[in-house]
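Model the whole thing, not chain by chain.
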Amino acid sequence: MFKNLLPNKILNINNNFFNHLIILVIFILFIGIIFGLFLSPPDYIQGDSVRIMYVHVPSSFIALGCFAFIGAVSILCLIFKIKFLPLVGKSLAPTGIIFTLVSIFTGSLWGKPTWGTWWVWDARLTSMVILLFFYLAYIFTWQFVSNFEKANKISSIIGIIGLLNLPVIKYSVEWWNTLHQPSSITLTSAPTIHHTMLLPLIIMLVGMLVYSFTIFLMKYKTELIKIKLKKNIK
Amino acid sequence: MLSKKVKSRIFILISSLTASAIIIFLVLRSLEENVVYFFSPSEIIKKSNISLNKKIRVGGLVKEGSIEKKEKNVNFIITDLKNEIFVSYAGLVPNLFSEGKGVIAEGKLKDKKYFLADKILAKHDENYMPPEVSDVLDKSD
């Protein structure tokens, strides 16, 4: 996997490839929206607000997934001195924070008609806000610490501490009483979502994953070019 | 293979990660009272030092057949299938508030069996299905 992230390989990707990926994303999301808004049934108690879930769940998944990668990259950055690796984490962060915000926003939108409140400070919602702050700290470090080595060190420590928050988010709904419901899709048992609703969810997840991957590649390539330009000027 | 420097970095990292994980675990453990969003009726009965003046939340299922509506007043029973607590509330309830479904009431205890709520939240479970499927399930029950 790491071989494919080597600067030479990334810098060789031409813009046509990105265009193809973007067309693919639009295509998948279009199908996902058709299923999510028109072909899937309303829920037996929530009614049509269940459709918010088709954006909310993939967003949360990607928000956590991006940070898991950032955490892993941070660990490797502190142990080995690999030149291009910090840029991987740096390029993942914007996608992660955007989807954290989307997750919180759509969740709030769903909470009002379902729970009867926009927001509560239960363990799941609070730990998600903490994730948002970790993303902010991580991004600000790269933004405002001008020395690359220093920024790498600080951001890696933030990434690693933030990594410990991920299991807290994931299991918050099982460890404590929360307003947020437990996961419907788990590795150990059959999903508690009817298959007509699972289908749009999976299509949207695939679409949003490919989207995140595309944005990451584009951002990563940009970062590599920036570094290369800096070196040339010196 | 790995140089001495790299090995020592791995060692420091693993030990500090383990240490922070243990610290987080202990902190969350001791804060449990504050982390939980609500107590079940059984937990309320078990608690010895419960304050009647402090705002707390009680959660569980709305007992079947227990909802009584009189004008703006709503009375019902929250159950966790072991213990029950009687809830009295005046105001609007969320649309999803119904018998047999999850609910969280915020307010103050009058005593361990009687709760005066000033806010009601509906708790949704992890089941999602179309109405037809739910009807079929209800019939087979």
